[in-house]
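Chapter review: from sequence to fold.
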Amino acid sequence: MKKYILALSIVFSLFTVSSVQAQSAKEVLDKCAAKVSAREGVKADFSMTSAQYGDASGKIAVKGKMFHATTPVATMWFDGKTLWTYMSKTEEVNVANPSESQLQVLNPYNFVNMYKKGFKYTMTQTDKSYKVHLTATDQSRRVREMFITVDKKTYHPTEVKLLQKQKWTTFVISNLVTSKLPDSEFRFNSKDFPSAEVIDLR
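The token string follows.
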């Protein structure tokens, strides 16, 4: 009987630790999302390494679901519905309405809109950061796993790593600051690119 009670106690304690860890992991992500989701907007530097999409680095501005990313190869504006992609080499602007799966790779901050549903959490930590591992509860999802590293002091995301179609894409994020951004920053303005050819892919 004592052995049975002891076994039950161990199982209960393991379950409790797992639940507490999952809850604290979500709390970390909630605080991180609040920083990224500042009403006025945020700006940051980023670099991307991807087996599927290649490597890139540049600057990004985010406000809600909107983002504006600039790299040496391309500039993107997304106003929550329409995505404009300007290719500097060809001076072409592709206009599209991207899917959620496409946005997951284009915007490193899109995890803010993803993590609350359909994922289970575990978390490890160092002296300076939390590392949350998210696993999709439905394996048919486009993104099956994510690792989000969060600075302990600022709750800013410093790395977002996601698995899509068996290939990993990693974003390293730095110099995040809150900035008052007008909505116009997230829309392509043809006056700024008078020589660009607009190709509507919608």
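Two observations follow directly from the output. Residues 1 and 7 are 10 Å apart (CA to CA). The first strand starts at residue 42 and ends at 50.
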